[in-house]
Design goal:
The chain contains no helices and 25 strands. With 294 residues, it is mainly β. Helices cover 0% and strands 44% of the residues. It starts with 9 loop residues before the first strand and ends in a 13-residue tail after the last strand. The strands form 7 sheets. Strands 1-2-3-4 form a 4-stranded antiparallel sheet, with no helix packed on it.
């Protein structure tokens, strides 16, 4: 806990080794070397924390820490806590609308997923600019693969795009035609095999881009809770996937959750037929032949 009944909602480590934690109206920075904790609240006179719940913290652009709150907007802070840049929700400094997710890209710039597409930090303009080629769709989650493919999580779909440093080009789309459910992703990671793992309020999804196969894991499988907290999905250095759920932290090994390669055999347990008001059991008739009109 941060203090009293306030729970931590986000955590990240900066380039200097400080651990940053976000809560409601509160931002904390812990220094493992000195064991000291710095606090910033939303009503502080100097360098106040964003108001509302700090749902995501990101270390990017060398010594900057980016802090996001749905109610309080965006902040960029130096590692000493000084606010260098800020924008309230709906600010013109974020050209693409309401911020839903953010990521530190391979170019060491912050990328934002918004309700109207993607935006990318422009240091010269000191603002976020819309990304050329971005779909005009809500982007709830985003992730770059090692080979430069950008995955975007939309309502009921995933989009795969190639970034050539100038604009995005659509490579593939996985949606309802591939049995992707009608839900909004709230987290997305790629495992060591390039398979996407997606969290949502309805379970955990495994999406294989090679076969375009989609598998939903819920409480009917291995999960105690199918509701996952937004922006908590990540991957360890050993390739294990973790996320926060209603029953605590879920940790899984992607290699142990491979879909079956063999189709299950069809087993007929019982065959019955109704004639008028009578029910006839045909299970033990061999061979069983059903002709037209029977």
């Amino acid at each position: 806990r941060a203090s009293g009944n306030i729970w931590l909602r986000s955590v990240a480590e900066d380039a200097a080794g400080h651990v940053w934690m976000g809560s409601y109206h509160l931002l904390l920075r812990y220094d493992p070397r000195s064991k000291q904790v710095r606090r910033w609240e939303y009503d502080d006179a100097a360098n106040p924390a964003p108001s509302g719940t700090i749902s995501q913290i990101l270390s990017c652009q060398q010594d900057l820490v980016w802090v996001r709150s749905g109610e309080g907007g965006l902040q960029a802070r130096r590692t000493d806590g000084t606010v260098q840049w800020s924008a309230p929700p709906g600010s013109e400094a974020v050209s693409s609308g309401l911020v839903l997710s953010m990521l530190c890209g391979p170019d060491d710039r912050v990328w934002l997923g918004t309700d109207r597409g993607l935006a990318r930090w422009d240091a010269q303009a000191n603002r976020f600019e819309a990304v050329p080629g971005s779909p005009r769709l809500a982007v709830h989650a985003l992730r770059f693969s090692d080979d430069g493919v950008l995955w975007l999580g939309h309502n009921g779909a995933l989009g795969l795009y190639q970034w050539d440093q100038q604009r995005l080009k659509l490579l593939d789309r996985i949606d309802a035609s591939n049995e992707f459910p009608a839900l909004a992703p709230n987290g997305l990671v790629l495992d060591t095999q390039g398979v996407a793992w997606v969290t949502s309020s309805r379970g955990l999804l495994r999406v294989d881009p090679a076969s375009r196969a989609v598998r939903l894991y819920s409480v009917h499988d291995v999960l105690r809770s199918q509701e996952f907290a937004a922006t908590t999905l990540g991957m360890t250095r050993r390739g294990q996937v973790y996320a926060a759920s209603g029953y605590g932290v879920v940790l899984l090994d992607p290699a142990a959750l491979l879909p079956p390669t063999r189709r299950p055999a069809l087993v007929v347990e019982r065959v019955t037929a109704r004639t008028g008001d009578s029910l006839v059991d045909l299970t033990h008739l061999t061979p069983l032949v059903i002709q037209p009109g029977m």
